[in-house]
Amino acid sequence: MSGQHQPSPDASRTRKMMTGPRRIIALILLAGVFVMEGYDINAMALAVPRLKDALGLDPAAFGLVFSALPFAIGVGGALLAPLGDRVGRRPMIVFSCLAVACATLVTSLATTIPAFLALRFLTGFALGACLPNVSALSSELAPERLRATIMSVVSAGIPVGLALAGILTPEVVAIAGWQGLFVMPGLFAALLAIALGLTLAGGVPDAVPDRSKVPQLELIRAPWLLPFAVFAAILGFNAMNLYLLNSWMPTVLPQAGFSLDDAAWVSGVVQLAGLGIGVLASLGIDRWRPGPTLMIMFGLMALSFLAIGATAPDPTRWMALLMIGVGGSAAGGMALPALCTYLFPARLLSTAIGVGVLVGRIGAMAGPLLGQAMLNAHVSPNLFLAAAAGPAVLCVVVSLAVPIALAVRKRQEPVLSPA
Predict the structure, then answer these.
(1) Which one of 54, 78, 277, 346 has the minimum C-beta count within 10 Å?
(2) How far apart, in whole angstroms, are the C-alpha atoms of residue 90 and residue 96?
């Protein structure tokens, strides 16, 4: 470990304004925002196989609909999330949750692919404005020596939401039809907005950037270009896997002999492994070495997908391998924003995460479209899942540059960072 640094003014001020039980409640509610995102990511994928009978819509035609959410998250993250560094985290989080609630509830009324496309874009745009500020605020509320780990635990809500969506789908559909898959997260988002509004501290950050400058532009010039490029590249390749697998796995697994309900259940359960993997990876970032930690995680993911490609479909074996592969991609979504606390100063944290999400969404958009192309080409389930090894290997390669990126921040200011 390198030398420690003094807490940023904003982080110190945030912790002073929200101490004790209120800070714990705030972190729990912030984790709830990620639960909402995880559920929302999986909701469309779980609804699509049921829309053929309900609305006569072909599942293979939903590639752009799946891509709309990650693309819009990136756009909202780049355009609106940086406002949190200027006007404060609280208003951005609360109003974005309200917007997510409205868009998700209205999705339950959609009947055409263009309607689903538009509503998923609006949902993603609001999520993009919200999520980087949730990550930044959780970092500011956390103890300095465990910032990455606390951020990871908070963002563990993503695999929890993904898992809940899959596990609860049979019951939700039995009670409320496919529409219930959107009504549930919509109502949850509305309740979260109210609770967060009552719990979070208000105010504008102390260290507000120069308003004459565009903070996004700082990320594409020295000294922050290299750290940002490394962060965005890993985020993009991991997002390609996350959205490829979570968009199409409920459709692909039945082709390997799983029932629709079993495929939904497997899609949910494998996400739970992401909780443990994500926490371990974040502890490695906090207390060990970020680069080797990420290389090990993504390397094991690649091996798991290759093993699936080389074996006949078997529920027990495939579930174990998918827990490593799919769980690892969910864990990447937890650990990578936490890495930002060591790559960038506090004044750029929401901006870096937000713009990184936009660049990373290129991969997230490509994932569902790649899956659609493979389905149209009638590839086997084995080959479909084995293809996910490619982005995982690319993550390993880019992770080799993480120590170089960390050295840039250390030259700019002393930082608590693993060697």
Answers:
(1) 54
(2) 10
